[in-house]
Design goal:
CATH topology of the largest domain: 2-enoyl-CoA Hydratase, Chain A, domain 1
Oligomer: single chain
Shape: globular
GO molecular function, one term: catalytic activity
Distance between the termini: 30 Å
Family: Belongs to the enoyl-CoA hydratase/isomerase family.
Number of strands: 9
Radius of gyration: 19 Å
CATH class of the largest domain: Alpha Beta
Number of domains: 2
Largest sheet: 6 strands, mixed
Protein name: Enoyl-CoA hydratase
Helix content: 40-55%
Strand content: 5-15%
CATH superfamily of the largest domain: 2-enoyl-CoA Hydratase, Chain A, domain 1
Length: 257
C-alpha cells in the first residue's frame, strides 16, 4: 500500500520490517505503531520466517514517540500506552530480531533497539535518552534498555540526556557492532546467517532462557536446566542436529544458500 508506514517482506526465511515514515523521522505515530505491531505478529506466527530484521528508510531509525500526537492528550490517551506491546513483541519474539540502523535513534527508538537481540549501526548513528529534557521519564524503555547497559553509563545517559555515538553505544552494550555504511548490509547478513543456523525451537527456548531470572547459585538451577537440556537432546530437532553433525551436513532447518 502506498500510504503504509511499515513494509513487510520475506525472502529466504528472513522477514524484513521497514519503518517508512521519514517525514517525521520514523516517529512512533498511532499508524506506525499499529502497523509495526501487526508486522511483528505476522513474522512470529510464520513458520517460514527464521530471523527478523528491523530497519528503516530515511536518515533516522526512529525518533521515539510522535510528540505532535502526544500534545494536549491526557494520561489515558497517550500513544505511549500502546508501546509496551511492541517492546514485548520484540523482546519475546521466538524468532531472533536484528536491528539495522543507518541513522540515529532517540528515546523510544532506543527502546526498540535494546529489545532486539542483535543491533548493528553505522558509526555516524547517534543516540540520546532525551526524555528528561522535555520533562518526561524514560520509564517504559528502561525495561529493555537497562538490562543491556553498563549501570554507570545508564545513570549518566538517562539523567543528562546527552547525545552519544555508535562507538560508545557498543562499549556500553547497546549495540553489537558499528560498521561503515558500505559494510552495514554485509554485517547484518552475517548475523542473519549465523542466527538461521540454529534450530528454530532451540532458538526460541534459548531466547526465553536468556530472559529468566538467574538462580542464586548454580546448584539451585541444575535440576530445571537438566530437564530442559535432556528434553532438547531427545527432541526431533535435537536428533536431527546430532545426525547432521555425524553426517557432516547442514541440519534440515538451515535455509538453502
Amino acid at each position: 500500500m502506498a500510504d503504509e508506514l511499515v513494509h513487510y517482506d520475506v525472502v529466504g526465511g528472513t522477514a524484513t520490517i521497514t519503518l517508512d515514515s521519514p517525514h517525521n523521522r520514523n516517529a512512533l505515530s498511532a499508524q506506525l505503531r499499529g502497523e509495526l505491531s501487526s508486522a511483528l505478529a505476522t513474522a512470529a506466527a510464520d513458520d517460514a520466517v527464521r530471523v527478523i530484521v528491523l530497519t528503516h528508510t530515511g536518515p533516522v531509525f526512529c525518533a521515539g514517540m510522535d510528540l505532535k500526537e502526544a500534545r494536549g492528550a491526557g494520561a489515558g490517551d497517550q500513544g505511549v500506552n500502546e508501546f509496551p506491546r511492541i517492546l514485548e513483541q520484540l523482546w519475546t519474539s521466538p524468532k531472533p530480531v536484528v536491528a539495522r540502523l543507518a541513522g540515529p535513534a532517540r528515546a523510544g527508538g532506543i527502546g526498540m533497539v535494546a529489545a532486539c537481540d542483535i543491533a548493528v549501526a553505522v558509526p555516524e548513528a547517534t543516540f540520546a535518552f532525551s526524555e528528561v529534557r522535555i520533562g518526561v521519564v524514560p520509564a517504559i524503555i528502561s525495561l529493555t534498555v537497562l538490562p543491556r547497559l553498563n549501570p554507570r553509563a545508564a545513570h549518566e545517559l538517562f539523567l543528562t540526556g546527552d547525545t552519544f555515538d555508535a562507538r560508545r553505544a557498543v562499549e556500553i552494550g547497546l549495540l553489537n557492532s558499528a560498521v561503515p555504511a558500505e559494510k552495514l548490509d554485509a554485517e547484518v547478513a552475517r548475523y542473519v546467517k549465523a542466527l538461521a543456523a540454529g534450530g528454530p525451537k532451540a532458538l526460541a527456548e534459548t531466547k526465553a532462557l536468556l530472559s529468566r531470572p538467574r538462580p542464586a547459585t548454580p546448584s539451585e538451577g541444575f535440576e530445571d536446566m537438566l530437564a530442559l537440556s535432556a528434553k532438547f537432546f531427545a527432541s526431533d530437532e535435537g536428533q536431527e542436529g546430532i545426525l547432521a553433525f555425524a553426517q557432516k551436513r547442514k541440519p534440515n532447518w538451515v535455509p538453502q544458500d
